[in-house]
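## tool: complex_structure
## caller: assistant
## args:
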Amino acid sequence: MDAINWHSCFFLLFAAIACGFAVAVVVVGDIVRMACCLVVSLAAVAGLFFLAEAEFLGAAQLMVYVGGTMVLLIFGVMLTARGPFVSMKTGGGQWVLAIVIGVALFAVLLQAATSTSAWNGPKANDQAAVPAANNSPLPQAGEGPGVRAVEGDSQDAAGQLGLGLLGVREDRLRRQDKPVLLGGMSGYLLVFEIISVHLVVVLVGAAYLARARRRGRNPESRSPLPDPRSPKPESP
Amino acid sequence: MAELLISISIPDWLAHTIAALVQCGLLLAIALCSAAVGIWLERKVSARIQDRLGPTRVGGKFGWLQPPADGLKLICKEDIIPAAADHILFRIAPYVCFCATFCVFLALPFANGWVAVELNAGAFFLLAVAGLEIFGVILGGYASGSKWSLYGAMREAAQVVSYEIPLGLCVVVVVILTGTMNLVEIGNQQAGWFFNWHIFHDPFTFVVFWVYVTCAVASSNRAPFDLPEAESELVAGFLTEYSGFRWVFFFMGEYASMFVVSGLGALLFLGGWNGPIPIASLLGLTPDGGDVFGWIGNLLGMCNFIAKAFAGMTFMIWLRWTLPRLRIDQVITTCLKYCVPIVSAMLAGVMLWSFFLPGGLILHVRSRYVAQPPSAVQSRAESSITAEGGCATRNTMDIR
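## result:
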């Protein structure tokens, strides 16, 4: 009992929270409570990322998914709901369909997870990582020498990610010996640019739609107002 | 600390648990103390602005025991949950609000290396977690089952969704300047005299700082951006149905988040724990001179940081009791028509400035005093932009 693997403890804790609240999302009827459970579940996944020292990913998870769920909740539920507390009832057919899809997805994910080599062979890393994790009371503070040695370059993952998005793949460049081939390693620049342009198009489109609708309505909504005061030109 | 406990023959698991609890307690104490001092400051500053004295008797002089007395009074109040409310969410909301703010303190460095968890993406983490505080507010507003609360929550949502953009861009400006998101490194790069602070780096960052101030005030729901709890129109906004200790949680969350945004502003623009005059390093109180000297230097740095954070809070309080509240359309206009374009232009300006004039406003002074040459940051930015391959990237690797 004298050597607890705190890393595993916290992993189990976060995993249990994530799974438990994911089930709660399905079971609970009230939409806002569902969203709340979803937020907790996603935040627990972010906690798992922090546990794995993928801080950037964890923060992105919090920012994008948790914040995104919040916005979805507000604009999707609160602004469109007619009653005070919206609840959703699922029929039997939907349950069956959902279970089939869920089990299929789970099977695919399970297969993918077990076929990953890193998942199968953590034994070599375990000996190095466990003592370092034991030395520190907090999971995030597990940056002991052991973990650092195992993880190596992943400490500055955010910097590498940023460079990768700008077209410099450091990990590839280090391995590549021939200077001729270096020019072709454009990283994720093209993907990044396509996504950016796509987002701009979406934004412009949204702004255009919002504008056009108002312009279309304005003449109609205005015309009834002056009517009682002045007679229509074509009415007599 | 765990090692210390193990050395006096306490079982391993108990030692780690105790150490973890003590560290959590320490952080919680910092968060609560910042909130308590903030509340006291609010009372005193607002009183002075309105030509009153404020609390004077509680605890002897200056009414310094007023916040605990307030807390005691509020605990004794009846805890009311409206019949129309969604009970579970109504109960959860205050804790969400406070916990989100508390988690931010995990990544907030108080001095060189004095941070609970030194995150590589600290600035990003801070923004992400501080944004979660809003979730509690919206949840509370919705779950109250009251029109006033819902209006407050909706205003909050509109305000926050729009103000997160310029706030994030302000942080991006500093991240581009420093080349890192690690808050400890950002603080260390501003070491030395006050003209090494990012606010004096170039004219663009000076403007960005004021945009940051605006957005920080807005993101912590302080006047003139306190629309979510506009007491003259919405009773108390999202707080209308809350009473007693649940209300206290929202309140402490608000003051702690004021401390956080002030501290983040100090870290990003005002040199963090580096004073205007580098007294500590002039006296040799750096980690190079030995552990004890480094510790004393860090203590001075922490005093600096806390002083700056409270100066920021005082500024926010001063604003609250000086400016009238904005309307919601004015709030959105301020954000989308002024803050976002200004900070975008300044972002481009900062990039051009650091491209053509690497090293900041006072080039020669900076290069003489700064330990790490600012060209290091520059070459990294260049290497990432030009992407010419191995040579430039090797350069980046060397610097790191």
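## assistant note: The CA atoms of residues 62 and 68 of chain A lie 9 Å apart. The longest helix of chain A spans residues 189-222. Handing back to user.
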